[in-house]
Each structure stands twice: as structure tokens, then as C-alpha cells.
Amino acid sequence: xxxxxxxxxxxxxxxxxxxxxxxxxxxxxxxxxxxxxxxxxxxxxxxxxxxxxxxxxxxxxxxxxxxxxxxxxxxxxxxxxxxxxxxxxxxxxxxxxxxxxxxxxxxxxxxxxxxxxxxxxxxxxxxxxxxxxxxxxxxxxxxxxxxxxxxxxxxxxxxxxxxxxxxxxxxxxxxxxxxxxxxxxxxxxxxxxxxxxxxxxxxxxxxxxxxxxxxxxxxxxxxxxxxxxxxxxxxxxxxxxxxxxxxxxxxxxxxxxxxxxxxxxxxxxxxxxxxxxxxxxxxxxxxxxxxxxxxxxxxxxxxxxxxxxxxxxxxxxxx
Length: 319
What we know:
The protein is mostly helical. It has a single domain (27-158, 165-300), classed as Ammonium transporter AmtB like domains (Ammonium transporter fold, Orthogonal Bundle). 65% of the residues lie in helices and 1% in strands. The chain has a two-stranded antiparallel ribbon with strand order 1-2. The longest helix is centred in the last third of the chain and has 36 residues, at 283-318. It is globular.
């Protein structure tokens, strides 16, 4: 399911920002970029494919997704947030996810549109505050943290979700299909056509990103089956967090090992949220990426300080 473009030079590890202009020239482009930011891209055609995926997989959720994305974008524009960040979709993607979740989990009423607008607008404000106080490349990115936090609050007022549909994995095609659908589950979609549309969008935006996304979903499915082969595998739910981890970390890491570690961490963390009574959503993805980035920073600092520690006794013995 679910987190972007590099806002200002390397501020957030999502992809690319649009050039800073005197105004936000194309609200449609900004909105489509917001859809693509769910998969950490900044590409209007990728966003259009994500929009098409919702139309194919769950057309009843399309209105909520559009309303959430527009609410986040208009909130950012109304409050005068940086235009390049608005155009890159950084204030829209959390709203899109919130619109999808609210439309999926809450029964329709006249209060649903105002709820989507309020939650999406608040998510844009939270993103701006995060960017304001974490402005350098070493800071931890927000990813989809505003979406997760607001969703946990909203879900406290709803009945627990019923068990997801399970899929018997009888042959290689079933395994491949389940791993593939993990891409759609980032946006609560469990239809193969929706997943195909998302994959096409990723290929248009970045073929390397598409490869890592599919690999991440496959690793998530394989880990779940190895952990408990007798369990019925839920439709794509094992793959979407590792897929997002792969998309996020592959943008920054030159070697595959941190990415693979992040995928495994996402799988290990998922049951913990369920045990706490919280819907995992994209929380395992966020926490896994934070842990990998923090660990890499500690290792880098340790390697930089090691030569100094080794020189000190050498000076003592020579004196």
C-alpha cells in the first residue's frame, strides 16, 4: 500500500522534484504526481496508471482517492507551501491513501467527504512540519507516517476488519500471481489488472524501480511461506511492505544487502503490529527503512572514527 520525491536536494528519498516556478502551473500534473508518490516516484504517467488501477480494481474508492489528493494539494497551496514540493505531489499522496482507506472502511454517509478533506488536509500539514524540521539528507524521511498515524486514530472508531480472502497456492502461476498482486495491495487493491496497471506505471517511471518492487513482493511472499508453509497466504498482503521497502532503499543504496535486510525487517515487524491490535498498513515499511538508514549512519560514523582511535596508541608508544 502504500511513501516520494527528493524535495530539495536529497531532502527526502523519494525521487525528483519539479523545478521551482512562480506558481503551481498544472494542478492535474501535481495531483498525478501525488498518486505516483505512493510508489516513491514523481512521474505523471505513473500516477495516471495508479489512477487507472483504482478504476479497474475498486472503482467505488476512486472518488475518495481523488478527493483526498485534491484536499492535500489545495491545503498546501492555500498555506503557501513551497511550489516545487506541491508540484512534486509531496502533499497529496498521504491524502490519496487516506481517501482510499476511509472509503474502504467507513460506510457511506454525508460525513465521509468532510472527513476525507479534514484528514487529508491535516496530513499535508504534518508532512510540511516534518520537512521543515528535518531538512538535511541524513534525517529520517516521513514516508507514509502521516497516513499511518491518522489511519490508526480513525480505525479506532470502526469495527475490526474481517479476515482477508485467502488464496490456495497450488502451482507456480498461483505463487507468481500472489506476489504480483502485492503491488496492488499498496493501495488496497487485490485485482490482477490493478497490479498490472501499477507495474506498467513503474516501468514508465523507472524500470529499475519496477524490478525492485516485484522482487520485494516476491521476497515477502517467500518469507511468509518459509515461516509457516501450512498457513493460508492472504492475497498479496505479504508482499506490499517489502515492495515499498525495496522501492525506497534501492534509490539510495548501491549494494543490494541493505535493501534485502530492509525487506526481511518489514516481514519480521508485521506480526508485531497485529499483536498490538494495530492494522499494519505501511508501518512495517516505514520502521524497516528507518532502522536500515539509522544503522547505516551508525556504521558510517563508526568507520570514520576508527582510524583516529588506532592512531592514538601509536603516538603513545612512539613518545
